Amino acid sequence: MARGALGLGIATLYLSAIVLIPLAAVAVKAFSAGLGTFWDSVTSPYAAKALVITLVISLIVAAIGAVMGTLVAWVLVRDEFRGKRVLNALIDLPFALPTIVAGLTLLALYGPDSPFGVHLAYTRAAVIVALLFVTLPFVVRSVQPVLIEVDREVEEAAASLGASNATTFRRIVLPSLRPAILSGAALAFARSVGEIGSLVLIAGKVQIASIVIYADIESDAPHAAASLSVVLLVLALIVLVILRRLGGRVAH
Amino acid sequence: MLISRRTSWSLRGIALLYLLLLLVLPLGVVFGRTFEHGFSTAWGWMTTPAAISAFWLTVLVAVIAVPLNTIFGVGCALVLVRGRARGRAILDALIDLPFVVSPVIVGLALILVYGQTGWFGKWFTDHGVRIIYAAPGIVLATIFVSLPFVVREVAPVLIEVGDEQEQAAATLGASSWQTFWRVTLPSIRWGVAYGVVLTTARALGEIGAVLIVSSNVAGQTQTLPLLVLARSDQIGSGAITSAYAAATELAVMSLVVLLAMTLLGRGRDSS
Known about the structure:
The complex is a heterodimer.
Chain A: H1 5-30, H2 35-42, H3 45-78, H4 84-90, H5 93-96, H6 99-110, H7 124-149, H8 152-160, H9 165-194, H10 209-218, H11 222-246
Helix pairs in contact in A: 1-11, 2-11, 3-7, 3-9, 6-7, 7-9, 8-9, 9-11, 10-11
Chain B: H1 5-34, H2 39-46, H3 49-82, H4 88-95, H5 97-100, H6 103-114, H7 121-126, H8 135-145, H9 148-161, H10 164-171, H11 176-205, H12 208-213, H13 224-233, H14 239-270
Helix pairs in contact in B: 1-14, 2-14, 3-8, 3-9, 3-11, 3-13, 6-8, 9-11, 10-11, 11-14, 13-14
């Protein structure tokens, strides 16, 4: 027996009982009434609209997250100011804070009782803000270590050869950061597609996919729920494959 | 890159403003709203029978899920990094699934398998065990969503420390059990600790999957995050303060977790 074969068996068993068999049950349920029924269920106006909204919102969140996350990582690595360590610790707050609390806080701040008179609650903008909150650490934490390791001599060489800051960033810094930014953004995208905890309080009538699946389960329509779930599962698998290709480690 | 003072300051300003609006302000508002009617009112909402029961259920779920995932995580990391068995690559790829699968799907999946009409649900029902809409379902959902953290923290550390010391211990006659406790575990302890903290954070705060597999009955199957949700949906005076009070309870727990993350992160980097 190869070294670790027993361990591999036990680990696979544990993973199967908790993750793999249940996920297989979703797929079986979705196709239980045939491929045609699955297709009809997924392409019904209700489900199709939810999928489109979810995809668009998640892409927006991934894009904003990529830009702002890189900017925040840059400031945390290259800038020096008092309180930087506190700020660095704060970045992990969305990972530590329960998502329902995140939803409630955003409702308090940008909801009907907003102290600034900003009423975003129950709109798509509110959903995007909530998702930006919960996905904030992904890009920052994936870009930060790469930025620390980047060789600054090349940047200095470029500058001494007359390259402007914008050119140096675009031609020297960005290429080395790109895989990290992309894997962070891919994780943020995957998280956004499936997120529910921070959204139950503020999504209102915005019919994103996870809320529609939840409503389907509650109204005892497991087949519709399973069909939509299969589409989201396929999206999740695509993101996993992209992440493997990028070689980025899947974190948090 | 030499950046002018002005650019540097404006970048810093944008970053700080973004984090202020997104992170600091919301948290401050929740604390403010919790205590706007005085500390004793807030404390009263935190100590109602339903709130106390929710607190202990949340702790109980974490106390079961975190050790199970820690044992699995360390063992699985060892199998993946040190093992030679075939099929490791497949296991390695599948471990990350819980990070990308929607919690709602997790809930649905568990119902389809362990629910009353589910694949294994009938067997459990016949033997008088209720999983879905009861505490075991909440535990299963929590284990699912927090499964990969320890593996993903420990595996890179195992690769980094190498196996020379383990081989030396084996050459000197240590059993594999002794080698694990005396050599391997001490060298990966920061990774394990960090993974445990991340698992705990997720276990305490999970709501999406739990929302679906729990019957959400106060005093029985209501965790703290579910209590926040239930109280937020209530109408009437005091309802919103009570929701904020439960949220503050969770936020304080997560700030402790955040502190642990920061301290352990420092230990991990310096070792």
